Each structure stands twice: as structure tokens, then as C-alpha cells.
Amino acid sequence: MANNYKVINEKNWKRALHCQIFRNSIEPSYCVTFELDINNFLARVKEMKYSFTMALIFIVSKCANEIEEFRYRFVDGQIVLYDRIDTAFTYINKDTELFKVVNVEMQGTVEEYVAIAIEKAENQKEYFTGPLGNDVFQFSPFPWVSFTHISHTNPGKKDNATPLFDWGKYFNRDGKWMLPFSVQVHHSFVDGIHIGKLADSLQNYLNRF
């Protein structure tokens, strides 16, 4: 079921001009890569026997949901703000080495989310169950390489404002486990300051997980 949203009246919306400028750009999306300290998170995931991937999807989605700019979308040409954003992630079929896209609703706790996400990912037979809705955060983990930058395919739809999150292979630096992390966003809604807020929120959550 789709999440609720409200239509934004652009006449009294503080971001109207910025949104319009970037909406008309040839490439309105941009991608930023940074590192996260996952020392505490990694220890806790192993202790609690959680899926690293599913736990991190939950944490990123929770932090992003708390920042308004990550919940804006274009719907039928209008600008809308969703009450809540759910998740869609890639999941590898180890036999075929092909991925499927799995949709999972956000849950109140990491325990609930991890359990539901694992069950759904393992039981889904189809690679694709249909086009993604607007009300998701997309995740495409890339755990084979510790990348310093990553780019993504462009579907050619300028009004596709769904944020896309990735992370690479974590590595040890000076006794700390570090994770390369990237976020791709639509500049009509998300500026650098908002990615900075997300980075701070993520690191704080991981530190106290």
C-alpha cells in the first residue's frame, strides 16, 4: 500500500526557485561518497546475529526518514512530501549471480525489519515484481570492492527523485573498521547540507547501536 503524502503549494514553498532550477538541469541528480566508522555497529551486528545488510538498510532508512528533504518526490508533475518512505533493495541469487529487487515496508525496530526483510528476500522468486513506487529508498549494496566513488545508470527520467544508497566492502584502517558509503539524490530537493545532516545522523546512530 502506498504511503500518504501532501501536495506542496509552490507559491509559498521556500525551495520553489531552487527546485525549478535543478529540475530543468540535464542531469538533476548527483552522488556523494564518504566513509562511516562501523566499529561499534559491526561488533553489535555479530553479537546480535543480525544481517549486516538488513540492519544497515534499516538504520539508513530511519535516519533519512527523519530529514524532510529526503521525503520529497514528484508525483504526476506535482511536488509532494511523503509521511514515510519504505525500502527497496537488491538481493543476490547466489546460484545465478543475478539480483532481484525486494520491497519491504519500514518497521518500528531493527529486529522487526531484519526478520521481515530476510524472510521476504529469501522467499521472493521473481527478480522484479513491478516498477518501484515513489515512496521508497533504493539500496544497491556493492560489498565486493572498497570503492572511493561510484556512479549509477541513468533511466532518463528527470523527475525520478528516489534517493539511492550504496556501500562498498568495509576495511580496517588503524584498528577501525571503515565503510565506503554513497548516496545519490535529486538536487531539486536535497542539497549538500542535507547530505551532511544524514552523514552525522548515520554516524551517531552507528556509534550507539
Helix and strand topology:
Elements: E1 5-7, H1 16-23, E2 29-37, H2 39-48, H3 52-65, E3 72-75, E4 78-82, E5 86-93, E6 98-104, H4 110-123, E7 136-139, E8 164-167, E9 171-173, E10 176-186, H5 192-208
Parallel strand pairs: 5-7, 7-8
Antiparallel strand pairs: 1-4, 2-10, 3-4, 5-6, 8-10, 9-10
Helix pairs in contact: 3-4, 3-5
List keywords for this structure.
209 residues, alpha+beta, Chloramphenicol Acetyltransferase, seven-stranded mixed β-sheet, three-stranded antiparallel β-sheet, 10 strands, 28% strand, globular
Structure commentary:
The protein is of the alpha+beta class. It has a single domain (5-208), classed as Chloramphenicol acetyltransferase-like domain (Chloramphenicol Acetyltransferase, 2-Layer Sandwich). 30% of the residues lie in helices and 28% in strands. The chain is built from five helices and ten strands, in the order E-H-E-H-H-E-E-E-E-H-E-E-E-E-H. The chain has helices spanning 16-23, 39-48, 52-65, 110-123, 192-208; strands spanning 5-7, 29-37, 72-75, 78-82, 86-93, 98-104, 136-139, 164-167, 171-173, 176-186. Strand 5 and strand 6 (98-104) form a beta hairpin. Helix 3 (52-65) packs across helix 4 and helix 3 crosses helix 5. The longest helix has 17 residues, at 192-208. The model has no long low-confidence stretch (mean pLDDT 96).
